Amino acid sequence: MTQVTKYIPNILTLFNLSSGLLALIFVFKQQWHFVAFFVALGIFFDFFDGLAARSFKVSSSLGLQLDSLADMVTSGVVPGFVLVFLLADSLHIHFLKDFQFDRLHLWALSGLIVTLASAYRLAKFNIDERQTSSFIGLPTPANALFMVALPLIIYDSQFSFLKNSLLNPFVLTVITLISAYLLNAELPLFSLKFKDFSWQNNWPKYVLILASIVLIVFFKFLSIPLIIILYILLSLVTPKGK
């Protein structure tokens, strides 16, 4: 049994990577619902590969490196290219059809700054012993969810009033730069893992969970960036070590 279980975490990690690759394909097809679905599925596998490794006591250096490589695709490459395509649309250029090294296409490529910042954040996470029970800087999965929600909000008729505001190259560039900063900022953020279930030790997590349910019910896709922002704000008022 041990011989079988030791492979389960790495198999889940490869499912994460496979989900990220499928999401990337749909980015290039600009089918944003599928992009969001496969990124969310990859993050689901990312959560459970670590849980499986701890449960079966089969954590390894190989698993750690493989996990980072999978996250790099699902939560690094995919959100970067989402921003590239949104920037291209906002600049009224056909990114794939007639790419050239001019000012507008290079501006669209600036969305890949998020990919570079994600790579740096993942590498730093692997050697940072301070992040065993909490995070320093925005985790790449949370950042990825924020990014893949943007096209769902922009192109959904329910949020048409936000389209002109969000589908603006300057706004998207600011979002790109803020994202890159938050990924690597010395900003303590609480983990969603529960050591116990008391209100005193876990109130920010309970507030986030309850607020997330309410936001999802009333705001649907728009709830995703709102939840990420709430997570950051709650972390700022949470005592260190919670």
Secondary structure layout:
Blueprint: H1 2-5, H2 8-29, H3 32-55, H4 61-90, H5 103-109, H6 113-127, E1 134-136, H7 140-154, H8 160-166, H9 169-184, E2 188-190, H10 199-219, H11 223-236
Antiparallel strand pairs: 1-2
Helix pairs in contact: 2-3, 2-4, 3-4, 3-7, 4-5, 4-6, 4-7, 4-9, 6-9, 10-11
Explained architecture:
The model has no long low-confidence stretch (mean pLDDT 89). The chain has helices at residues 2-5, 8-29, 32-55, 61-90, 103-109, 113-127, 140-154, 160-166, 169-184, 199-219, 223-236, and strands at residues 134-136, 188-190. The chain has two domains: 2-186, Four Helix Bundle (Hemerythrin (Met), subunit A) (Up-down Bundle), CATH 1.20.120; 189-242, no CATH class. It is an all-alpha fold and 242 residues long.
How are the strands of the largest sheet arranged?
1-2
User: How many beta-strand segments?
Assistant: 2
| Structure annotation, total helices | 11
Whole-number total of structural domains: 2
Bin the strand percentage. under 5%
What is the radius of gyration? 18 Å
**Helix residue percentage:** over 70%
